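Sanity check

After download, print the first record. It should look like this:
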Amino acid sequence: MPEIKAIKVALVGNPNTGKTSLFNTLTGLNQKVGNYPGITVDKKVGKAQLSEDINASIVDLPGTYSINPTSIDENIVLQTLLNNKHQDFPDVIVVVADVENIKRNLLLYSQIKDLKIPTILVINMADQLSRKGVDIDLDELKKKLKSEVVLISARKNTGIDKLKQAILDYKDLNTSVLANISEKIDKDYFEKMANDFPNMSLYKTWLCITQLDDYDGLNAKELALINDYKKDTLKLKKYQHKETIYRYQQINAILKKTYRVDKSKAKDLRTKLDKVLTHKVFGYVIFAVILMVIFQSIFDWASVPMDFIDAFFAEMSTKVKQVLPEGRLTDLISEGIIPGIGGIVIFIPQIAILFLFVSILEETGYMSRVVFLMDKIMRRFGMSGKSVVPLISGTACAIPAVMAARNISSWKERLITIMVVPFVTCSARLPVYAIIIALIIPKERVLGIFSLQGLTLLGLYLLGFLTAMISGYLLHKTLKIEKKSFFLIEMPDYKLPSLKNIFYTVIEKTKAFVFGAGKIILAISIILWFLASNGPTKFDSAEVDFASRSDMKMAEPETYNEALASYKLEQSYIGVMGKAIEPAIRPLGYDWKIGIALIASFAAREVFVGTLATIYSVGNDDEENTTIKQRMSEEVNEITGEKLFNIPVGMSLLVFYAFAMQCVSTLAIVKRETNSWKWPMIQLFGMGLIAYVASYITFTLLS
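Expected structure tokens:
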């Protein structure tokens, strides 16, 4: 039998109408996430089985309040629905509305209906009709809207079969216009427009004139005519205003006969909860408590699976060395590929747990209250209330924090948030901070209560947040990106979270990281292995040269092997690089060994400690940290003859790691989220410069 072409369906709706829940219900796990060509906004596409032999290709378009775009997201909706050459141009449009805000939802529906594309109106959250005291005359509403209307509950999976049948019958849908704008605005003006563009519907022409700067569906003559119409900006604004008023008048008339609300029957706790959760004092306290619970849970819950993953890949690497014959291929697999994959997988617990909590907060409706609460504060620094979650998330890991910035609709605010998140102290910095603070800060107490070492660590966290805020302010003033000045956020009803939606969200975000950033992380890991396992001419003769050293001839085998590994590392490419950058890092108080650790920790900040363990010939025993501290405390500066890790050098290193972008994983995810190497490179070199200057000043002042 010939293959049946899938019906193309576009899901459109206001934010928080349950559009994504419906998408998940229709497609399940049979969905994929990408980016629109040249745009960083997510594109979600899935397959749905409508009948035994017919399926649908469903695209979940970004949420929008009207077809008149005010953001990149909303512009995607317009471009998709106007251009019949677009790959996602639909056979049928499903407009999702919710029972409580149907008046506002119908503005978008009425605009889309006038494009003369088969359209179905879906009223979601039908299970809440009685609780909201809402009564809908469905038959009369269908008649007035000249369309098929389906009541559903995406959360409870009711009405879905009726919707599928309506999609199957899309060719029978009424495609006549709902609002005759020419009659109500300026009949002569629109008649002339219809004559000038006989091959396009009237409303499509109107949108091309008022909303689009360019449109590849027009020829040169039509483009010239469009530009002529655009010149009279005052008339266009006046007519747009009239259009909106007319549409709402028509919607009011329709709802007056089909939609009734009896508030006496409503059982709604929303107002009472909002008074507490958005209170100017208690709102912040409650939010702080929730964050403490969330991030304490992230650290506690993620530690066990992360330790298991770390041990699993270490054991796998060891077994590969035992099973496979010695050689370059075995080394590549055991020391490059397996650790590289482990470096990807080990982040999964943190990402999954973080997005579990974020999706719960979003599903319950609380996240919108947080955004509203924090917006005034964050706007002073070039961000918005929606930036709060990524910044706080950064204390666990910058990778899921950068991904969490997707919720920010303004591209400028989203970009600023992504750029400053790495300044926030993440868990990967803790191993570095812990060992250096233990080396240089005495175990004393301030006022007999507070640990001086603990206060130093707290100061580093505060330094990260303060730097992030200042950087956000500077980027806000310097980035020449247009930004809308108004703030609009939907306050959805509180509801119990859908386990199905939470599951799909966690799976989707985790997959996006593994398959997006994972490829780059693995590649860099292999490169670092190569640089540490190979070297110039001296590297090839390193074992012979080392064996001839008189101080090693009587050494124990274990001591000899550790010293040989350290010597070979010095002769490797990465060792040569450490020696090469030594003149540049000497002003910071560092030697070539610290230089190697700086280079190696580019893969991940926590690699710093492990690299020093190798350089200082320390075995991986149970006393690793203590031994490293002993050896580091004994290290002598080759030039001054004094201890290398003193207060000036230690504080310089702490400041360096507080500012430097020493994390290839974060760079990879920033590249994916911004769809460009420009911004991660600005982060890498910009934060590196800040780190260098700040470390130099710190070392100079304390020396």
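If your output differs, re-run the checksum step. Summary of this record's structure: The two ends are 82 Å apart (CA to CA).
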